[in-house]
Amino acid sequence: MKDYLRVNxxxxxxxxxxxxIGFAIARAFAAHGIKVMLCDIDDACAREGLxxxxxxxxxxxxxxxxxxxxxxxxxxxxxxxxxxxGVDILVNNVGGGEPPVAFEEISDERWDHFIRFNLYGAFYMxxxxxxxxxxxxxxxxxxxxxxxxxxxxxFCAHYAAAKAGLIGFTxxxxxxxxxxxVTVNVIPVPTTDTPAMRLTDTPxxxxxxxxxxxxxxxxxxEDIADTALFLVSEASDYLTGQIVAPNGGKRMLV
Length: 254
What we know:
48% of the residues lie in helices and 14% in strands. By secondary structure, it is an alpha/beta fold. It has a single domain (11-236), classed as NAD(P)-binding Rossmann-like Domain (Rossmann fold), CATH 3.40.50.720. It has a six-stranded parallel sheet with strand order 3-2-1-4-5-6, sandwiched between helices. The longest helix is centred in the middle third of the chain and has 29 residues, at 108-136. The protein starts with 10 loop residues before the first strand and ends in a 23-residue tail after the last helix.
């Protein structure tokens, strides 16, 4: 049988990989033979995830990394290169929001924090990894954005603004990276059943989202992981600078 994805043996970094969408992506990658470096600030949770992936036969490692500290980003990339000789795949997943807040009540500090958390981190990681991909003439970068970046979201202006910026960053870098055979795509995730979502969305918000989704449910992390797996595979080699939205039909992007 022909291998459609052709990802076995590739080397990946997944940020925010301790739980939720990031862990689901790391787990899916490892299950298909990708060597995965999990990066996160939550050591205990990340090590539990690492043990689970290894118990399933996957090849993975963990590196503590604070996305706000450029020196730690450099260390994580260097450790990946040391272990496996290079980096073929980068998933910029780290990010998040907070409980609903009216835009006029967002302080300067909170605005700066969430812009940095959701946008600057992806820039820092991509800037550090890209030279390795450019040198080898191959690479796959996937940025995790949000549906709020496209349609807006109530009471999360700072989060939505940062995630919209991530789409612009994706399309711009995709143009520059294409001659180096490096693809850059973005997944605007919908409401997804993760521990972080349960902290920021009320049960009423989740129920409404499910009602408004043609497929009748909110996403689970595995829905996003499957999309990411396709985007880092050789099956997507001619796809770059694209917004790929697994959202159950909630937003039809045409």
